[in-house]
Structures are given as C-alpha cells and as structure tokens.
Automatic annotation (TrEMBL):
Lineage: Bacteria, Pseudomonadati, Pseudomonadota, Gammaproteobacteria, Pseudomonadales
HAMAP family documented for this protein: BioA (MF_00834)
The reaction(s) this protein catalyses: (8S)-8-amino-7-oxononanoate + S-adenosyl-L-methionine = S-adenosyl-4-methylsulfanyl-2-oxobutanoate + (7R,8S)-7,8-diammoniononanoate
Subunit description: Homodimer.
Record site: Participates in the substrate recognition with KAPA and in a stacking interaction with the adenine ring of SAM: C18
Binding sites annotated in the UniProt record for substrate: W55, Y148, K283, S318, R413
Protein name (record): Adenosylmethionine-8-amino-7-oxononanoate aminotransferase
Pathway info: Cofactor biosynthesis; biotin biosynthesis; 7,8-diaminononanoate from 8-amino-7-oxononanoate (SAM route): step 1/1
Principal localisation: cytoplasm
Residues making up the signal peptide according to the UniProt record: none
Compartment(s): Cytoplasm
Residues annotated with N6-(pyridoxal phosphate)lysine modification: K283
Cofactor: pyridoxal 5'-phosphate
Pfam (any one): Aminotran_3
C-alpha cells in the first residue's frame, strides 16, 4: 500500500469531520498506517510527532502497552452490556475512582459516549433539577463569549464560535452570553487576575438580574480551546462559584478538553478551589483510545430525581453504549497511570521545557502573545505586534505552518492564527524543542506576504 492508494480510495467514500473536502485537492490527507508513542507513521516511512494529541485526546502515547493490555483483558470478559437494569465491574470501579479524583462533593457519575453528549446530558439534568424543584421557569443557560461545547444542537447553541455556529443559528435555542475573561483582551498593564475580575462584573449583573430564569452557567475552565486556546485567570471561577450559590444557579464545568492534566492540575477547577455542580469529562478520560464521557455530579442533583416511578421525576436519558465496559477499563488504566507514574508532578518539568523552548519568540514581530496553562501552550500570530491586528482569517496563514511542520516530522494543526502544542505526556525534552523549532520556522514562513 502506498499513501496515494489509500488517499484515492478515501476520497471516494469518506466525508471527513470539520473539513471543506475541496481543500484536499491541494492539501493531501495524511494516511496513518500505525502509531507508537508520540509518533504517527504513514505508509512510506514518514513519521510525525502528534503535537496536538489527535484532537486533544491522547495522553500516554499511541499503542500504550498498559492500555492495550487493559483492553485485551476486558475484551475476554465482557465487551458490552446494557447499563439500564445491569451493571458491571468496570463501570462501578470507574465511578468510584472518578468520585475519588474529582473535586470534593462530586459523588455520582452518569455516562455518555462523547463530549457533546455529556454536555447535552448536563443541560437536561440541570433544567430537570429545577423543574423537579418546582421551578420550571428556570430554562435559560448562560455561556461565555468565544466558548465551545461541541457540535450537537444543544452543545452548539451553548457555544459562541461563529465559524461553527452561525450557519445553524435558526435551529438553536437562545442562550445568554456574558463576556469572556480571556486575558488576551486585557488592557496594557492590567493583570490577568484584574481583567478576570473586571469581566466578572457583567456576569454578576446578568445573574443578579435574570437568575429566576437561569438553570446554569456553563464554562470551559482556564482555556477556551476551540476558541483559539484563549486563557484566563482561575479567580473568575472562584467568583462564579460564589455567585452561582448566591443566586441559586448551577455551575457546569466543561472539562472535556482541559481535564486530566492539560492545565497542570488533574482538573482545571482545582486551580479555582471550586466544586462545580456538574463536571463534564471526555477526551483524556480514555487517554485517546475510545469514545466515552461522563457527567459527574452532586448528591443534591441526584436526589432531586430520586422518587417513586409514578412521580415521573427520573432522568430518562440514555445512549446505547452508555458505560461501555471496554471504555471504562481503558479509563481505569488511564487513572492507574496517573497514580502510578505521578504524572501531574512529572508534567511540571515538561511544561517548563515547553515555556523555555518558545521563549525566543517573545519578541518576534508577528507574535502577539505566548500563553500557557500547564501542558497547553499557544502562540498567537498577528499582523502587527503593537496593535495586535490579526491576519484576516481568509488568508489561512495557519495552514502554512501546518504544511511546513509536515516536512519536519511534526503534526501541528493551528487554530486560525494560533499555533499551539498540546502533546501527549510521553513527549520528551528533545521532541518538545524540535516542535518549538519547527513552529518558529513555520511562523516565519507563514507571516511572509
Ligand atoms: C471544551 C469542549 N467541550 C466539548 C467538546 C465536544 O466533544 P466531542 O467532540 O467529543 O463531542 C469539545 C471538543 O473539542 C471541547 O473542546
């Protein structure tokens, strides 16, 4: 098999996600034959460092022997069983472990099979909670500007990235939007913390005014990933938690992308010292192996649904593959690796190397910002460093970085003008420094006229 053979067959029958398929007339697909550790390999012995962890999911490398072993063991015992009326060891073990590792007070786990469906479940649970408490007028949700929560209609409605949302606007429920604490927009001389507190004032006013009609506020703690890896200070969520308590509104933390160590702590909420009412998890939950998601919530929420059947207060929501045993076994192996290898501490060193490796770009005339939370680092390319004027999106300069990186054994996939690294945690120093070098070269190429 040659690369070209698979590409030709692919284009006859596969429709790729988040892709203008016509782009593949000039941008060839990358056919991946196999992968190991941080390396993706094609059919002609080219290899690429997976700098974006295959859409932010992979944690411990491809073909990880411990996770492969967990799949082999589980598949011999039980591949799947309906989770309504039945239970199994992997789902019980995983629920116990998630209760243990998530912030204090999150005690019940509900499962789905991808990030968007976890968001949908949390939205329905929150609305239904208030209805069960005799408050059906609470039916609105609050989001932040530039947020992203997935592509199904409910999750898309909750997002605020025009590129994904505008086309479908007529199909979407209305939401209330508060301004993001995104530190990129702070005034010169203002700290991230001061900006987050200033931005919080609008959220506080919105909740004060409309809390009677609001079920929940939904946030991506610390990093708005799909919104361009925009970052903010944890104080925002500390204040938000207090305000949600004050006004009787749920707080839904979407940790689908940032959970499992991406921001330097196991969960981003830890840095704000808070427990949300719902924490949505996916992606790193299975270390990039299988589709699985969880909504972890409180006893208070669970108890609002617990009653005689005839009261019709139950959460009658399901997916066929809810709590899939192989997915749960992989998630358990993932949590074992976190514990046994002290991963969060080990990552501190890698984050420092990441910061150090791009420090030389700080004065680059076309770099408007370098930002980092733990194992996620982003570099914002701008037309003018002083004014932060952006390159027009139509110029698609990020693609030039992507194309250059492929010639240098690296898969970087900029979000618009934002080049970022969100690598598997098995990456080593030398590989990080290589990525930084490739990104610098790519940026120099991309900013030329
Ligand atoms: C913060 C956040 N929420 C939700 C989702 C949706 O997850 P999925 O793609 O698994 O539906 C994503 C996906 O990137 C995400 O980044």
């Amino acid at each position: 098999m040659r690369n070209a053979d698979l590409i030709a067959r692919d284009l006859k029958s596969v429709w790729h996600p988040c892709t203008q398929m016509k782009d593949h007339e000039s941008l060839p697909l990358i056919p991946i034959k196999q992968a190991r550790g941080v390396w993706l390999e094609d059919f002609e012995n080219n290899r690429y460092i997976d700098a974006i962890s295959s859409w932010w999911v992979n944690l411990f490398g491809h073909a990880n022997p411990r996770i492969n072993g967990a799949i082999r063991d589980q598949i011999e015992k039980l591949e799947h069983v309906i989770l309504a009326g039945c239970t199994h060891e992997p789902v019980v073990n995983l629920s116990e472990r998630l209760v243990e590792v998530t912030p204090e007070g999150l005690n019940k786990c509900f499962y789905a099979d991808n990030g968007s469906s976890a968001i949908e479940a949390a939205l329905k649970m929150s609305y239904h909670y208030w209805k069960n408490h005799g408050k059906p007028s609470k039916k609105n949700f609050v989001n932040l500007s530039n947020s992203y929560h997935g592509e199904t209609l409910g999750a898309l409605a909750l997002g605020d990235v025009a590129l994904y949302k505008d086309t479908y606007q007529p199909l979407l429920m209305e939401v209330l939007t508060a301004p993001s604490p995104d530190a990129y927009n702070k005034e010169a001389g203002e700290t991230d913390e001061a900006y987050a507190l200033r931005q919080f004032e609008a959220m506080d006013r919105l909740l004060a005014e409309k809390h009677d009609e609001i079920c929940a506020v939904v946030v991506e703690p610390l990093i708005q990933c799909a919104g361009g890896m925009r970052m903010h200070h944890p104080i925002y969520h500390t204040r938000l938690r207090e305000a949600c308590d004050r006004y009787g509104v749920h707080l839904i933390a979407d940790e689908i992308a940032v959970g499992f160590g991406r921001t330097g702590t196991m969960f981003a909420c830890e840095q704000s010292g808070i427990t949300p009412d719902f924490m949505c998890l996916s992606k790193g939950l299975t270390a990039g192996y299988l589709p699985l998601s969880a909504v972890v919530t409180t006893d208070d929420v669970y108890n609002a649904f617990y009653d005689d059947y005839e009261t019709l207060r139950a959460f009658l929501h399901s997916h066929s593959y809810t709590g899939n045993p192989i997915g749960c076994a992989v998630a358990l192996a993932t949590l074992d690796i976190f514990r046994d290898d002290d991963v969060i501490n080990a990552n501190r060193h890698l984050s420092r190397v990441m910061a150090d490796s791009v420090a030389h770009l700080a004065d680059h005339p076309n770099v408007g910002d370098i930002r980092q939370h733990g194992m996620t680092l982003a570099i914002e390319m701008v037309k003018d460093r002083k004014t932060k004027e952006a390159f027009p999106w139509q110029e698609r300069r990020g693609i030039r970085v992507y194309q250059h990186a492929l010639t240098r054994e690296s898969l970087l996939r900029p979000l618009g003008n934002v080049v970022y690294f969100m690598p598997p945690y098995v990456i080593n120093e030398e590989q990080i420094r290589h990525l930084a070098q490739v990104a610098s070269e790519g940026i120099d190429i991309a900013v030329k006229d």
